[in-house]
Amino acid sequence: MKDLIDVFKNLKKHILAGVSYLIPVVVVGGIFCGIGVAFGGTAPWETPDTPGYFFFLLGKVGINLMPAVIGAYIANSIADKPAIAPGLLLGQVAQDCGAGFLGGIIGGLFAGIVVLYMKKVNVPKNLKAMWSIIVIPVITVGIGAFFMQYGIGNLIVAFTDWLTEFATNMGTGNLALLAIVIGFFGSIDLGLFGNKALGAVPLAMLSTIDPATGMPVMIAQQLMLICVTTCAIPPLVCSLATIVRPKKFSEEEREAGKAAGFLGVFGITEGAIPLALSDKITYAGCIIGTIVGCVAASFTGAGTIVNWGGLPNLPGMTNIPLALIAWAIGIVVGAAFIIIFKKPSSETEGKEVEEKDAKVTQQGEEFNLDF
């Protein structure tokens, strides 16, 4: 029981350990998705045998590895190397069954805890190798995959379906209220199931054509703009905060912030994940900034027919200046929240303490020499 309490007591540490290994995967995957969009437009996956198609699919490979990678290294942080393979496999099961990134975190925790306890079982010396290499991973993955496939995955899929129905049933009578709902649910998962589920609503509505213009009805375009607003704002909030107040972030977080800025420009929300998961204030800033940006977009009267956020959305956008101002408002508000409420990085604090101690020591030496 004590071991289990210790795991949850150090939960943030274990998740951050997974995030540290996740950062390069997110960055590389996101950059190649961005390159794919730059070469192939907003739907590069529809044009096989083109550079845009190749780069976008390469990026998606990286993005789709996120649950497996974070699952593996959360498990590793809890129970060392024997937990890596179970965490990796349970993370991939989470990806395949629709539980996604959240499922990867849960799978990593499950694998780490189970392996931690199974390592304590006393087995004959001549069976220890088999116990570690075969029995522990097989039992952990077998049990974990069953619950992931038929339990957690189904719950997340059910929540996604409910979210889509909820947004659909709200109607469009109060666009600002709907923008709050879309902004919140579209940002809490930073580009994963909620974001994509909500995007399905206006995407379906775009098939309704206005006879007067020959274009999709304006309300569908406005809803689509609100939905794609949830894509670009979180990573750009993180990036702006790290640029304006770098001392609030560790060196690793500052580097992640640079990558998040690039990814945000191309509407790749996952760029915010490493920073948002590392600190609840940063996470809250992403959500608040997104909600504000969505509400601001709802008052502009602008819309879009492009189901993608960031720079690639501009060709399909109406009233571009107002839409960009709405996005900028959300980004600035979110970054300001982080800058005001986030405490300086422990790494920065440590350096300041070391510098202060060095200065005191130096002054002390001079004082002694004077005597």
TrEMBL record:
Topology within the bilayer: Multi-pass membrane protein
Location(s), subcellular: Cell inner membrane
Annotated region described as Disordered, given as residue ranges: 347-371
Keyword annotations: Cell membrane, Membrane, Phosphotransferase system, Sugar transport, Transmembrane, Transmembrane helix, Transport
Membrane-spanning residues: 20-41, 53-79, 99-118, 130-152, 172-193, 223-244, 256-277, 284-308, 320-341
Highest taxon of the lineage: Bacteria
InterPro entries named in the record: Bacterial_PTS_Sugar_Transport (IPR050864), PTS_EIIC_2 (IPR013014), PTS_IIC_fruc (IPR006327)
Compositionally biased spans, kind Basic and acidic residues: 347-359
PROSITE patterns: PTS_EIIC_TYPE_2
Residue ranges of domain PTS EIIC type-2 in the record: 11-351
PANTHER family from the UniProt entry: FRUCTOSE-LIKE PERMEASE, FRUCTOSE-LIKE PERMEASE IIC COMPONENT 2
UniProt protein name: Fructose-specific PTS system IIC-like component
High-level lineage: Bacteria, Bacillati, Bacillota, Erysipelotrichia, Erysipelotrichales
